[in-house]
Amino acid sequence: MQTLAFFLYIGLLFIFSVSSFSIAVTKIQYPVSRRGLIALRQSDTDQDQDLDPDKLVDPSLKFENPRIKKAYCALQEWKKAMISDPLNMTGNWVGPNVCSYYGVGCVPALDDEQIRTVAAVDLNFGDISGQLVPHLGLLADLGILHLHSNRFCGIVPKTFSNLELLFELDLSNNRFSGLFPTPVLTLPSLRFLDIRFNEFEGPLPPALFDKDVDAIVVNNNRFSSHIPKNMGNSPASTIVLSNNKFSGCIPRSIGRMPNIEQVSFSNNRLTGCLPEELGMPKFLNVLDVSKNYFLGPLPKSLERMEMIERLDVSSNHLTGKVHDSVCGLSALWNFTIFDNYFNEIGGECEKRSRDNLIMQDRENCFSGKPNQRSQQDCSSVLTRPVDCKTIGCQPRDPLILELNKRKPPLVHSPSPPDPQTPKVTPTHKTTQLASPTPPVVSPLPARAVKNFPPKIGSQHSSPPRGH
């Protein structure tokens, strides 16, 4: 009965939300002001604040139930920590009727249908600056928190671990900093995590890939170190790790991922050969390993990727032949191989590239093709074949060290997007991802909750801001 009640609760929440997640970037840029934000960096001492609503709320106010009183306390304390609200999205956050606040959605409580409680908060595209407060941990019935495209800074409070019903957390396109927000690892209901375009740094915790999360989107931060070896434990359908500073190899455990459909490792510092396990996930339809330091040939296992639609291996140092068995994959319609050292291509690849396969092959070592590398440039790599059994994952090999020197430093700001807007969805629908721009997740549209200002209710995703 409890399980059934939970799904009924989720269904009520989705009355106020759109059930699809889209990934998109546009050319528009929002101005960003950092003035006054650094002073708001939180410390662990913030977690020791008194969160008792009876001590913080005016006793003359009347509330329909104790949960609404707690929500009032949480939202009012949060509003005090907002130093700028240019669209006045919290302008009507006044009085005890929190269910009428803009961006706040209420539904019957999961454990008591006779009372209302706050189940969703959506301040997407608000450009609000400030910080999160520990009092948000009082929103124990919260299922959705969307804060995409604001200027919140600091860290995620430890009290977020109290949000046991939270299943969608979107903190993307803000100024959050510090290590990976570990409070989210304790959230038992979390299914969608989007923290892209922030300033998080350090390693990803292995525990992230042991959680039952469907979408893990952490691109465009400053994460570093190796990708955890237990990545293959994740049941996620979408994982976006692009535009960070990850090093080492792609974990071989990726081969046992049961649900993975779309994954991007683009624009990191990954090394070694592409593992054979890369072609094992049966549902993979988008794979992007571009802009890294990968060496050696394409794995033979790629020929088994029957559902692959978009495959991008560009801007690496891959060598050898582009085989017909890959080009001939029936679902493949975009195969990007430019800026490598491939020196042979199959006849089927040539035929399909003239017919129905988009294949960008410039800046390789193909004889007789236009826009290829110089003979001297090709010889410097092709005369030093790579043994994938011994190459390893660290840049110890002289060739990799030399390539590291040549590669320009990682730029945290995103490049102007390709005119073809990339789209990826963490669902089981057929999707497309434009090359060479890596996928970037956008949240649900801003009409996810009923009390949202009409002028903010755009159906279009907000663009990422540069750092």
From TrEMBL:
- Descriptive protein name: Cell wall hydroxyproline-rich glycoprotein
Query: Leucine-rich repeat-containing N-terminal plant-type domain location, by residue?
Result: 74-106
Compositional bias ranges of the Polar residues kind: 422-435, 458-467
Q: Name one Pfam family in it.
A: LRR_1
Q: What is its main location?
A: secreted
State the source organism's domain of life.
Eukaryota
Give the keywords, sorted.
Cell wall, Cell wall biogenesis/degradation, Glycoprotein, Hydroxylation, Leucine-rich repeat, Repeat, Secreted, Signal
Q: Name one GO biological process term.
A: cell wall organization
Q: Per its UniProt record, what InterPro entries does this chain match?
A: Leu-rich_rpt, LRR_dom_sf, LRR_extensin-like_regulator, LRR_N_plant-typ
The listed locations are: Secreted, Cell wall
> Entry's Gene3D superfamilies?
Ribonuclease Inhibitor
Q: What is the lineage of its organism?
A: Eukaryota, Viridiplantae, Streptophyta, Embryophyta, Tracheophyta
Q: Where is this region: Disordered?
A: 407-467
